[in-house]
């Protein structure tokens, strides 16, 4: 058995059909089936159960799948280590960025590439929980995420805390509640975070604390669309300060929500027990708050 066969088996286990696995591997189905048969003969036990609709891992196959993931990951890390030791910093650095992306990243990328022009980047955008999963699976090495978040198994570098702002088209007026200085209550609020995630939860807690009851609460993960809708008077929103700095050209009215406990923070994370490439380790030094 070799690493090529391990990758074949991983594809079959994850795709759940020989046909889909063959497409993922860019190979014909019969040779893939033959490779699986050879592996089962070598181990002396069935690794998958074949049904008309899909394949299922046997107990032995499940054990092999998890061991194969570890071996393939260790091999990739060893290749990266040898390459970096011999050639210095080069290759592709894979980074994830929260949907409410941070303006620190652009300058860090510019400064880093000036010093290491042979490094290229693959940047993925998504919600913080999605980025954590990508780091766990080894799809990316680093991710900028928003707290609060369950970070068990991760190492992290805190970057910054910042306040929230209420954003509207200028027509919202002071509400009836004593603490509703900007007309949050009664407005159609659209939040820039998926329900149940950290930023969403923080905003809901703030509304409850001051007994502010919007007429409705919606969500929109597309920040440009969100600001277009605010500009046209369709909705209002509450967003972190960074979002305002990255979208300065919209004709909207903004109001700082001055509660020292109502803050959002973000940092960069990586997996504790996985080898961190020299590229990623070096990049961490460039991602700092001035």
TrEMBL record:
Can you say what this protein is called?
LysR family transcriptional regulator
Is Transcription regulation one of the keywords?
A: yes
The UniProt entry's GO CC annotations, sorted and at most eight, read: cytosol
Looking up PANTHER family in the UniProt record yields: HTH-TYPE TRANSCRIPTIONAL REGULATOR BSDA, HTH-TYPE TRANSCRIPTIONAL REGULATOR YBHD
Which PROSITE patterns does the entry link to? HTH_LYSR
Family label = Belongs to the LysR transcriptional regulatory family.
- Taxonomically, the superkingdom here is Bacteria
Q: Which InterPro entries match?
A: HTH-type_LysR_regulators, LysR_HTH_N, LysR_subst-bd, WH-like_DNA-bd_sf, WH_DNA-bd_sf
The major lineage groups are: Bacteria, Bacillati, Bacillota, Bacilli, Lactobacillales
Which keywords are on file for this protein?
DNA-binding, Transcription, Transcription regulation
Q: Which GO terms describe its molecular function?
A: DNA binding; DNA-binding transcription factor activity
Query: Per the database record, which ranges form the HTH lysR-type domain?
Result: 1-58
């Amino acid at each position: 058995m070799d690493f090529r066969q391990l990758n074949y088996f991983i594809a079959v286990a994850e795709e759940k059909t020989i046909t889909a696995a063959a497409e993922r591997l860019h190979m014909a189905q019969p040779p893939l089936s033959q490779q699986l048969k050879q592996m089962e003969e070598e181990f002396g036990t069935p690794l998958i159960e074949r049904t008309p609709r899909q394949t299922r891992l046997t107990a032995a196959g499940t054990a092999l799948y998890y061991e194969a993931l570890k071996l393939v990951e260790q091999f990739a890390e060893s290749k990266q280590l040898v390459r970096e030791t011999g050639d210095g910093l080069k290759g592709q650095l894979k980074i994830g960025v929260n949907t409410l992306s941070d303006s620190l990243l652009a300058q860090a990328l510019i400064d880093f590439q000036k010093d290491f022009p042979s490094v290229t980047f693959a940047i993925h955008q998504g919600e913080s929980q999605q980025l954590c999963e990508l780091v766990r699976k080894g799809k990316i090495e680093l991710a900028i995420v928003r707290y609060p978040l369950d970070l068990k198994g991760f190492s992290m570098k805190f970057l910054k805390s910042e306040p929230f702002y209420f954003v509207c088209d200028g027509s919202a007026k002071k509400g009836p509640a004593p603490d509703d200085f900007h007309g949050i209550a009664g407005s159609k609020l659209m939040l820039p975070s998926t329900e149940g995630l950290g930023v969403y939860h923080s905003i809901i807690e703030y509304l409850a604390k001051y007994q502010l009851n919007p007429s409705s609460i919606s969500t929109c993960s597309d920040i440009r669309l969100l600001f277009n809708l605010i500009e046209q008077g369709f909705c209002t929103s509450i967003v972190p300060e960074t979002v305002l700095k990255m979208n300065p050209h919209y004709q909207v009215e903004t109001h700082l929500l001055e509660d020292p406990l109502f803050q959002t923070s973000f940092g960069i994370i990586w997996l504790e027990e996985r080898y961190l490439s020299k590229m990623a380790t070096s990049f961490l030094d460039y991602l700092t708050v001035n």
